[in-house]
Amino acid sequence: FSKIVTEQVTKIINVPVLKQHAVAGASLSLKNLAFGSVNNTIRFHPNPINCNPMIADICAVSAIKNKLVLNIIDGLLGCFDGGPGYKPEGTWQYNSLLFSTDPVAIDRVGIEIIDTKRKEEKLEPMTSLAKYISTAWRLGLGTNDLDEIDWEKVTV
């Protein structure tokens, strides 16, 4: 674990990008937080692992779980295909920011947004690869049930 996370900060505000990920399904709050806190993450990516359960396990560590206070997904320009790298043809102007104290809920909403765009583009959904979201729910890190998530759009 990074000493910044374990020793130098008392609160974490996590700011990932709304992004599809070819291996993990999506790279949102949980993946950003987990893989930004440890080194040598390449070992967690091979199939059939797909970063699961590593993302959830890392986020469940008290040095992270107890310090995380807010997740803000930058969805001004979202990536629905070609992630985690940048492919202009795989992006769209989503023009939104997502806010949540629950990293599981915001990731569940984020993958739903990505898959909605992928459906419009006639691409396969990524939810089946993002198993780490359900694993994080099972570890008690938040909810992944869309019926339990208060998903409210505010226009300014």
Could you outline the blueprint of secondary structure elements for this entry?
Layout (H helix, E strand, L loop, with lengths): L2 H6 L3 E3 L2 E5 L3 E2 L2 H7 L18 H6 L2 H4 L2 E12 L11 E10 L2 H18 L10 H8 L18
Parallel strand pairs: 1-4, 2-4
Antiparallel strand pairs: 2-3, 4-5
Write up this protein:
- The chain has 156 residues and is an alpha/beta fold.
- It contains 6 helices and 5 strands; from the N terminus they run αβββαααββαα.
- The chain has helices at residues 3-8, 29-35, 54-59, 62-65, 103-120, 131-138; strands spanning 12-14, 17-21, 25-26, 68-79, 91-100.
- Strands 1, 2, 3, 4 and 5 form a 5-stranded mixed sheet that branches.
- Strand 2 (17-21) and strand 3 form a beta hairpin.
- The protein is globular.
- The model has no long low-confidence stretch (mean pLDDT 94).
Which keywords apply here?
about 20% strand, about 160 residues, about 30% helix, five-stranded mixed sheet, alpha/beta
